[in-house]
């Protein structure tokens, strides 16, 4: 019964953006729905980072509900008992609400993608010009199902780093795919076929960024942010003692080695140092790419935005070390990575779509009113 209640809560949350899109006097409602879903997915990724950074991932130690209920209100007695038994543990009323709000939000995103899928297949069967294959939202629906499974395993496997990092990467994959779909539905302001020469360079930039985000996720899920306490050196050394074998052993419990011992500081330093060092290569590449692409009118705004977000990312990453990982800056750093991914995806779409015969300039959609 509580699963049905959870579904109804997700539906109610999703009705707010759905209503906003449908009451707007516009003929391109499907495009607006995709952009709204993209924006809310970005918010969900940021709130997921907030959930992890506040140690709320086990605020409700079961899934999909909270102690077998749909709300921490109903599970108040169990949460209070768990908190009284272990006041410094992962369960408290505040953490339970943070975790459940994250789940409600995720279910609402699922409802929005279900709506996209239904609209797209209806347009296919009725031969309405929707300018997108229904397999796009169908693929998104399957992706969010896999993401939900990893969300469940995050809880049931007690925040195992590889599971949590994969959960993060799947969330960003969902965001990036939604961004690509939104770009397909949005008219390109100026068609510049000459920018197609940069499609490989843009793809390399995206690949480097994904690796860097994965390394950042590994730092966060292993709580290695403060393994290096100074900058630009690490604990007073350019190349400190590091244990890469244990630091990057993927299948192990949180805070433990594969042998069941407590993970060493040298292993955490290896995780942090790798993320920090690779960041310089990624920043240098993306800055060079953005400076080159900003010379084209259709790429100027996203390229300038990439430069701005890179500067913010550097500042927040450095502040996390110097200021000892304050929560608002840590959340901003997580969110900045998601925004940067979305911008680089947009650059990739623009360069790929400028090939001959690939211009994406849709007319208005015929989505149902």
Report the sheet-strand fraction.
Answer: under 5%
Biggest beta sheet summary: none
Distance from N terminus to C terminus (CA atoms, Å) equals 33 Å
Helix proportion: 55-70%
Give the rounded overall mean pLDDT: 90
Count of all domains: 2
List the helices and strands in order.
HHHHHHHHHHH
From the spread of the alpha carbons, the general shape counts as: flat
| Rg over C-alpha atoms, rounded to the nearest angstrom | 22 Å
Give an overview of the whole structure.
This protein is mostly helical and 369 residues long. The protein has 2 domains: 1-186, no CATH class; 192-360, no CATH class. Helices cover 66% and strands 0% of the residues. Helix 2 (29-53) runs antiparallel to helix 6 (161-184), helix 5 packs antiparallel against helix 6 and helix 7 (199-221) runs antiparallel to helix 9. The longest helix has 34 residues, at 93-126. The chain crosses the membrane at residues 6-23, 35-53, 101-123, 135-156, 162-186, 198-219, 273-293, 305-323, 329-349.
